[in-house]
Each structure stands twice: as structure tokens, then as C-alpha cells.
Amino acid sequence: MDFERLFKDYRVPYSLRINKGWVNANCPYCDKKIDSFNMGFNPKDDYCNCWKCGNHDLAETLSMLIHVPVKDIGQVAKAYQGTGSISVASNQKKLYKGFLTLPGEGFTLAERKYLEKRSFDADYLHEKYGVVGGGITGKWKFRIIIPLYYKGKLASWTARSILSKKELKELNIPRYKNLSADESAVNPKDLLFNLDNANGDEVVLTEGPFDVMRFGDGFVCSLGTQLTQNQIKLLVEKYKKVYIMFDNEEEAWKKAHKYAVQIASMGLDVEVVDAYSDFGVNDGGDCNEEQVALIRKELGF
To answer: Which domain holds residue 214?
Structure first.
């Protein structure tokens, strides 16, 4: 779809400089600043994704931006088929050894204590998943950096803050922060964490990397409850069955069932799993070893 021509005609501010091959506009869901251009539109695969708040329905998003009712967006889209003048090279840049380097090597005492408090072994996470600490200075300070690999090569990373909820709120800092799509070899929201360690016909899709690191091989995460079309493609191309095991929250359950229907429509066997209610926990990161073993056994892993 020619988003550039569409936005020109409807006088929607946009940018072609945010990420090569994408057309970016202000996100109608979360952008408060003018010309933040967080919402990316992919003209090759016709979907949109906000680098800040995630994947959204294309028709609904366009309706909000060009001020046309959702029911009429389909007719509008027909008039803007084609990719226009911009480059539509894949957002997944060519990966090669050494393309990215993690901004850390070991862990500070505070980072180790944070992981130990959550019953994780820092050295094991480093050896198994390449996890490192962000240190006490710089862009990734006070964060646990979790690498995202694609076919054995470092493609991007996400990082979780070790600060308390109160400190995050006072400083207005997000709990998780991804490496930007432009700095990554592959947009982190087009990847699934731990994909290289989930090689069977079946896979369990969770929300966050700490869920995955608690359960181990056979489990992947989508970095939140919003899935992009590229993440869905990875699931469809590699697996025959997907268990969706999101956090024990109402909104997460709604998203799980929404994506279950979408993935099932592509021919996969999909099951939404309520794994945490019986244990009184909200997510995989809060499970103990016995609970993890029981859940893995029930799912056949």
C-alpha cells in the first residue's frame, strides 16, 4: 500500500527517515508530542507497528489518522495500492557476524542481587542466553540486557530495569526498553526471544523474556501482548502447534484469544493456556521450580 501518497493526500504529517523502507506517522494511541513519528507503516506487508506501544489494527489506525470511518477504510485502501516511490526493502537488514555488540559484558553487584532476588542465576543466564548487565552509566544503566538472536546471530536486544516500581514511576522510565529498530539488525518487535532454542513442532508463546528464561527450551516470547505480522509469520513458518501462555490478567487474556484466532486462521493448531491461576501467580517469572516442572510436563515439554 502506498502510505506515502495516502498521507500526502490526506495531509497527515509523516517521515521516511525513521526506519528505511517504512513510512512513519504520529501514533494516534500514545504520541503526545508533535512529529514523534512512532507509528511505522510497512508498505510491503501492509501492517503498522508503534515502536513505543506495539502492533495495532491497520484499518482502525488509518481511520484515526485520516479521519475516515473504519467501515470506509477498505475502499480508501483500494485507491492506494502499490508501493509508490519509497524503498520497500525488507526491514530485516542483512545479518552478519559482529554486526552488533552488546553494551556490556558482566554484572554489577546490584544487577546480580536483582536476579538472585527473582531466583535467577546471573552466570547461567549469561551462559545460556547471553544476558549481561547495563552497568551504572550510559543509555542502558541499571538494566538487565537480554539479547535477541536470529539464526544464531545477534539481531537486537531488550532490557529490563532493575529499579523499583516506585522509582520507575518517579523517573518516568519504562520497565522494558528495546534497542531501536534503526539501530538493530532486525526490528526487535519482528523477533521472538529464544527462537533458536525452540526447535520442535510445538512452541509456547509467552509475554516476556523472564517468563522464557524461567521455563527454558521450547518457550519463546513476543516482548509484550502485541504481536506483529512478522512475529506471527515466524510462528506459522516454524511450528505446527502454538500454546499461548500470557500473564494472568484480563487484558492479556483478551489479546491471547485475539491472536489465537488469527494464528489458527493460518492453519496452525492453537491453544490458549491458563497456567498460573492454580498457583496464585501472575506470570512465569514468579513461578518456582516445582511449578515450572509441572507446567512443562502438562504441556509435553
So the answer is: 195-299
